[in-house]
Amino acid sequence: MYSLVQAEAPSKEPISAIKPAKVANPAMAELGKKLFFDTRLSKSGFISCNSCHNLSMGGTDNLKTSIGHNWQKGPINSPTVLNSSLNVAQFWDGRAADLKEQAGGPIANPGEMASNHALSVHILQSIPGYVSEFKKVFGTDKIDIDKVTASIAAFEETLVTPNSRFDKWLAGDKKALNDQELAGYKLFKEAGCSGCHNGPAVGGNSFQKMGLVEPYKGNTNDGRSAVTGKDADRFNFKVPTLRNVELTYPYFHDGEAATLSEAVDVMGRLQLGRKFTADENAKLVAFMISLTGEQPSFKLPQLPPSSDITPRPDPFGK
C-alpha cells in the first residue's frame, strides 16, 4: 500500500501544500491582532473575534453553534478562521466576498457582538493608543470601519498552518505518513472525497449540496440560496476545509456530527452513497489527522487602555 501511494508524483495530487504566510504590512497585521482580541468591539465588552474563533482551539469554539450577546444561541456552527484566506468566500453561505467584508458582520449582528459600526469606531477613536496606532498604519488619526475591518483581515491572513505531516509527505518525506494514513489518503481519492475536498485548504473552494445521495436530516436551513435567491442553491454550503480538522469539532454547518468518525460516516452515505467499514473509516480519519499543521504562535497583544471618555460596556443590556 505504501509503495502504491508513494509512487504518485506530488504534482498530480488533488491536494497542494499550505504555504507560510507572507505578511505584506506587519504593522497593519499587528493592529488587526489587537482588534481580533479586543472585547470592546462588542456591546457587552465580553465577546471578541477570538471568542468564536479561538486560536487556542483550532480557530473555532468547539460548540455546535456559537454563543452570542446575552447568551443567545447562534444559528450555525462557527467555521475555523485558520486558513480562511484560502476560501472562495466567507461564511457557510458565502455572503461575504472576503475576510475584510466578513470582519464587519459579527460586530453589528445583534445575535453576536450586538454593537454597531458607529459605536465600535467611536470607542476606538476614544482610546489614545488606538488613535496613534491607526495613524501609524494608515497615515491619519481618523478611524473608520473600513480601516478596522482591513486590519482584522490583515491579521487573519497570517493565520495559516503550514508544515503538516501530509505537507511534508507532499514535499518528498517518505516517512512523514504511516501505512494507515497513506491507505486513508488512497481511499480518500478513490471514494471521491477529493472531488470536493481539494486544493491547499482541502476544501473551502466550492459550494456543494448537503445531501446529494440521501437527504440530510439535520438543521439544513437555506444555505447558499439565502444569498443568491435561487431555489437550486437551497441546502448548498461552502465545503469546509479539512486542514486541522481533528481540532475543529463538532462538524457540519449545524455541528450535528460530534466526532470526525461520525462526520466521515455521514458524508460517505449522504454525499457518496457509500457505507464505509469501520476499518475504512479509521483509515480516512488517520489521513485527515495528518492534515494538522503548525498552529499560529505569537505573543498575545497588549491592548491599549480605555480613556475617561470611552463608552463603557453594557454586558446585561438587551
Q: Indicate the radius of gyration in whole angstroms.
A: 21 Å
Provide the residue-averaged pLDDT: 94
Give the count of helical stretches. Answer: 12
- Unreliable sequence segments: 1-10
How many strands? 2
- Binned strand content: under 5%
Secondary structure blueprint with pairings:
Elements: H1 2-6, H2 26-37, H3 49-52, H4 99-108, H5 117-125, H6 128-138, H7 145-156, H8 165-170, H9 179-190, E1 207-209, H10 225-228, E2 236-238, H11 260-272, H12 278-289
Structure overview:
By secondary structure, the protein is mostly helical. The chain is 35% helix and 2% strand. It is built from twelve helices and two strands, in the order αααααααααβαβαα. The chain has a two-stranded antiparallel ribbon with strand order 1-2. Helix 11 crosses helix 12 (278-289). Mean pLDDT is 94; it is low at 1-10.
